[in-house]
Amino acid sequence: MELTSPVRPILITGAGKRIGLALARHFLAQQHPIIISYRTRYPAIAELEQAGAICLFGDFSTNAGIEQFALQVKEHCNGLRAVLHNASAWLSESTEVSPADTLALMLQIHVNTPYLLNHYFEPLLRGHGHASSDIIHFTDYVVERGSDKHIAYAASKAALDNMTRSFARKLAPEVKVNAIAPAMIMFNEHDDAQYRKEALNKSLMKVAPGEQEIIGLVDYLLNSQYVTGRTHSVDGGRPLR
Ligand SMILES: NC(=O)C1=CN([C@@H]2O[C@H](COP(=O)(O)OP(=O)(O)OC[C@H]3O[C@@H](n4cnc5c(N)ncnc54)[C@H](OP(=O)(O)O)[C@@H]3O)[C@@H](O)[C@H]2O)C=CC1
Ligand SMILES: Nc1nc2c(c(=O)[nH]1)N=C([C@H](O)[C@@H](O)CO)CN2
C-alpha cells in the first residue's frame, strides 16, 4: 500500500486466528486497507497477505517488542483509521506458572500493549477531523464480576476497561475510544462437551454467537460520530442468569 494512500488502514492486533482474523477478513471484504499483527504465522496469514493486508510480526511479551512493532507500522502508513486491540491471552491461575509470572504476562498483553501502542499511534490517529478515528479495547464480561479462576486476567482486563475512559478523555473529539466486553463468543477447540454445555447455560441466550456478533458492534462504533468512553457488553444477558 502506498504511504500516501487516501484511505487510512485499520490496525488489528493478534489477527492470525479467531475473532481478529474474522475482523481482518471483514474489512478486506469491504476493500478497506488493514494492517495486522501476528505472533504465530498461521496459514491464514498468507491468505491475508494475498488479499492485500499488511501483516507484521508482533510479539508484545516485551516492551521492546511492542516498540519494534509500532515502528514497523509507522514505516507502512502515515495515518490510521482505527486501532483494534484484540491480542490477548486467557491465562488461568495454574501450578505450571507462578502467580507473579501469570500477573506479569496478563498485564503485559492487556495493559502495557494497548497503553504503549495508543501512545505510539496517537500522531497517526489525530489530524483527520472530528470523530475521524477510533480505538477499540477488547475487554471481557468478567471485568464487572471478577473470576475465581482467571484472577490476573480479569484484573488486567479491568485496567484496560479503565484506560478506555482515560484515553477517551485524552483523545476526544478527534478520536473515539470504546471497549467491547464479550462473554462467551466462541469456544476453543479443546473445550469438551461438558464445558460447552455449562458455558452456554450461563447466559439467557444459551448460544456462543460467533465472531459476527463482534464484527457488527465494531462496525457500529466505527460509524458513530458520538459514542465514546463507554464499554459495550456482548454477553447474552449473562448478568441476569
Ligand atoms: N473468544 C471469546 O469467547 C472471548 C474473547 N474475548 C476477547 O476478545 C478478543 C479476541 O478473542 P479470541 O479471538 O478468542 O482471542 P485468542 O485467544 O484467539 O487470541 C488472539 C490472538 O492474540 C495473540 N496474542 C496473545 N498473546 C500475544 C502476545 N504476547 N504478543 C502478540 N500477540 C499475542 C495470539 O497470538 P498467538 O496465537 O500467536 O499466541 C492470538 O492470535 C480477546 O481480547 C479476548 O480476550 C473476551 C471474552 C470472550
Ligand atoms: N484471549 C482470550 N480471551 C478469552 C477467551 C479466549 O478464547 N481468548 N475466551 C473466553 C471465554 O469464552 C469465556 O468468555 C467463557 O466464559 C474469555 N476470554
Automatic annotation (TrEMBL):
Pfam families (UniProt xref): adh_short_C2
Example GO BP: one-carbon metabolic process
InterPro entries hit by this protein: NAD(P)-bd_dom_sf, Sc_DH/Rdtase_CS, SDR_fam
PROSITE patterns attached to this UniProt entry: ADH_SHORT (PS00061)
Domain of life: Bacteria
EC assignment: 1.5.1.3, 1.5.1.50
Alphabetized UniProt keyword annotations: NADP, One-carbon metabolism, Oxidoreductase
Enzyme class at the top of the EC tree: oxidoreductase
Gene Ontology molecular functions: dihydrofolate reductase activity
Catalytic activity line of the entry: 7,8-dihydromonapterin + NADPH + H(+) = 5,6,7,8-tetrahydromonapterin + NADP(+); (6S)-5,6,7,8-tetrahydrofolate + NADP(+) = 7,8-dihydrofolate + NADPH + H(+)
Family (UniProt): Belongs to the short-chain dehydrogenases/reductases (SDR) family. FolM subfamily.
PANTHER family in UniProt: DIHYDROMONAPTERIN REDUCTASE (PTHR43639:SF6), OXIDOREDUCTASE, SHORT-CHAIN DEHYDROGENASE/REDUCTASE FAMILY (AFU_ORTHOLOGUE AFUA_5G02870) (PTHR43639)
Its biological purpose: Catalyzes the reduction of dihydromonapterin to tetrahydromonapterin. Also has lower activity with dihydrofolate.
Protein name: Dihydromonapterin reductase
Species this chain originates from: Buttiauxella brennerae ATCC 51605
Taxonomic classification: Bacteria, Pseudomonadati, Pseudomonadota, Gammaproteobacteria, Enterobacterales
